[in-house]
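Shapes recur. Our protein:

. . .
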Amino acid sequence: KKIFNIIGASMGSYRAASDVWELQNLMREAFGYEMHTCLCYETSVDEIGDIGTAEINLVMRQEGLPAAEVLKNKFDMPFVVSAPYGYAATLAWLEEVGKILGQLPDVKMCARLRLKAQNTASLKMYAMMMGRKKTPQAAVIGEYDLVKGLSAFLRSVGIDVKYKLCSHSLKSIVEPELDIRYISVEKEKIDILKKLQKTLVLADDVSHRLCDSSNVVLRVSAPFIDGAQIATHLPLLGEKGTDFLLETIEAYYQTLA
């Protein structure tokens, strides 16, 4: 039927609606597939009732794994776990999905993503040059899968992610990366943020308020208190999300020049 489900779209996540929108764009352009059921965002009882008719489940967050396992056991539905951040990661994600569907992603789309990924390599070279003066560094704060994905992308463009801070306990995470930490004592987290200098800080508004003006900040997680979340077409993941993130990264590099 050329339909898929999304599982783990938490509406408590920042830009969740836009991320779902971007996943739909990727699946439509790459494979000609349309979304059927999305848990838990704008989903009807009827869509949940026949959720087993889709061909594949796209699991955005680890919290969606139990549901994906149930659907796999009951309906023999395969699933892919991860939310792709960065051009190369998006391309790899599409190729993984394509293997399950038995269909190659759209050739022109793949060529476009490869070219964009190659162009970002210049940022890594620029970072190496800047390292003689000031090593580009970042702090990422948010939900586990967001921190993991964004940190990997930042490393690919030459930024050392000095702090990877999860906003929730790691108890439910399967084999969490060792350098992603959950700090239960708020004072320790505050002390880290107040000491940051000339750092790219991808976090929530509360964390940003603790950083001084030498840092470049971008809101990527909740809570958000210094503005509204209105747009549903400004993702953080996928191709369009990477386009957006790179604008802030470019601006950050300029502050180190």
Remarks:
- DSSP finds nine helices and nine strands in the chain.
- The longest helix spans residues 107-130.
